[in-house]
Amino acid sequence: MRYLSDILEGVAFTELQGSADVEISAVVFDSRKVEPGCLFVALKGTAVDGHDYIEQAVKQGAVAVICEDLPAHTAQEADFLMVANSAKALGTIAANFYENPSSNLKLVGVTGTNGKTTVATLLYKVFRDMGYKCGLLSTVENQVNGRIIPSTHTTPDPVVLNKLLADMVDEGCDYCFMEVSSHAVAQHRIEGLRFSGGIFTNLTHDHLDYHKTFESYLKAKKAFFDGLPKSAFALTNGDDKNGSVMLQNTSAHKKSYGLKSMADYRARIIENQFGGLLLNIDNEEVWFKLVGTFNAYNLLAVYAAAMLLEQDRSKVLISLSKLTGAEGRFEYIVAPNKVIGIVDYAHTPDAVQNVLSTVHDIRKGKEKVITVIGCGGDRDKTKRPIMAKVATEWSDKVILTSDNPRTEDPAQIIKDMEAGIDPAFKRNTLSIADRREAIRTACMLAQPGDIILLAGKGHEKYQEVNGVKNHFDDMEELEDQFKDMI
Ligand SMILES: CC(=O)N[C@H]1[C@@H](OP(=O)(O)OP(=O)(O)OC[C@H]2O[C@@H](n3ccc(=O)[nH]c3=O)[C@H](O)[C@@H]2O)O[C@H](CO)[C@@H](O)[C@@H]1O[C@H](C)C(=O)N[C@@H](C)C(=O)N[C@H](CCC(=O)O)C(=O)O
Ligand SMILES: Nc1ncnc2c1ncn2[C@@H]1O[C@H](COP(=O)(O)OP(=O)(O)OP(=O)(O)O)[C@@H](O)[C@H]1O
Ligand SMILES: N[C@H](CCC[C@H](N)C(=O)O)C(=O)O
Ligand SMILES: [Mg+2]
Question: Which atom of ligand 3 is nearest to 376's Cα?
Answer without folding.
Answer: 10
